[in-house]
Design brief:
The protein is an alpha+beta fold. The chain is built from 3 helices and 18 strands. It starts with a helix and ends with a helix.
Length: 315
């Protein structure tokens, strides 16, 4: 074979190989694109306390090779999986379980949905002839909060506190009162996200030193409620924060001083009018006795005088 002919064969072979590699690469990209289209991302919302069913694909168990659920809840990932030649695996251990319908389709069951079950559920199913994957964002539709309100002291100031705890999403709180209608947005507000994904909202309102008699109302709004939930705090008439304490203190001290003064006066007066001693009490009795026996003594003396006179006559 001549050099020119050999060069032509090599060139043609190289070109054909290059075209084949390009075609193979394009086919691989096409297959990869097709596989990536099999992954479906979706969001699903459920109510608290309800049973939840999540499906990955509509293939029956007889067609399945294996199914894996990877669940990411706030950065903590656990896995539930099952395969034809593999033992079932459950690292979640929280009641979720993989089951089959009567027709043999596989699904993941959450018996009683809670806020702690929110997260991303990644599913991968491999069956004869292909595979399927899904990335499902699972969340609660709404979770109502628990509402409470009370009064507390902050130094010398009295503060009204309204708390909407455990809601999803966060609740909205405002104040209403009878002495200042513009204070519905007054007060400081604090929102905290709990470990289970719910929110606690607290609104604090510092009361003025003196306020007229009336009620302070906390209004709480949340998507799970049609109407506004309210909590009413009764406010005493003319409630003065520092002055009320001063008045109570003065009255208390006055009562104590009056009581102590009365006891002191009573004790001192009783000392002055205390009963006489036995010796003193007997003195008038002795005097009366002398006065009573004095006539008798005089009589004796008189009798003795007569007796003495008679005796003198006989001497």
């Amino acid at each position: 074979m001549s050099t020119a002919l050999l060069s032509g064969v090599i060139e043609r072979t190289t070109t054909e190989m290059g075209n084949t590699w390009i075609i193979g690469f394009i086919s691989l990209l096409a297959i990869s694109a097709t596989w990536s289209l099999e992954t479906v991302a979706r969001s699903e919302h459920f109510r608290l306390g309800h049973e939840v069913i999540l499906t990955c694909c509509n293939k029956t168990w007889s067609e399945m090779i294996y199914t894996i659920w990877k669940i990411d809840r706030g950065g903590t990932v656990c896995q539930i999986s099952s395969g034809v030649n593999d033992q079932p695996l459950d690292s979640c251990n929280d009641g979720k379980v993989m089951l089959n319908t009567t027709s043999g389709e596989s699904y993941l069951r959450i018996p009683e949905f809670s806020i702690s079950d929110e997260g991303f559920y990644y599913c991968e199913s491999v069956y004869r002839g292909g595979s399927n994957s899904a990335n499902i964002k699972v969340s609660v539709i709404v979770a109502p909060p628990t509402v409470s309100a009370w009064l507390e002291w902050e130094g010398s100031k009295r503060v009204a506190v309204c708390l909407a705890e455990g809601g999803k999403p966060a609740a909205s709180i405002s104040w209403r009162n009878t002495w200042n209608s513009t204070s519905t947005t007054a007060g400081t507000i604090k929102t905290i996200q709990n470990q289970d994904g719910s929110y606690s909202v607290e609104r604090r309102l510092v009361l003025p030193d003196v306020i007229p008699m009336g009620n302070l109302t906390c209004d709480v709004r949340h998507p799970s409620w049609v109407e506004v939930h309210t909590v009413t705090l009764p406010i005493p008439k003319a409630a003065s924060i520092p002055w009320l304490h001063v008045i109570i203190s003065v009255v208390t001290i006055s009562v104590i001083m009056a009581t102590l003064g009365g006891l002191y006066f009573t004790q001192k007066h009783l000392c002055r009018i205390s009963p006489t001693t036995p010796s003193e009490s007997k003195a008038p009795q002795s005097q009366d006795y002398v006065e009573e026996v004095e006539p008798y003594a005089s009589y004796v003396q008189r009798v003795n005088s007569i007796y003495n006179s008679s005796a003198d006559l006989f001497t």
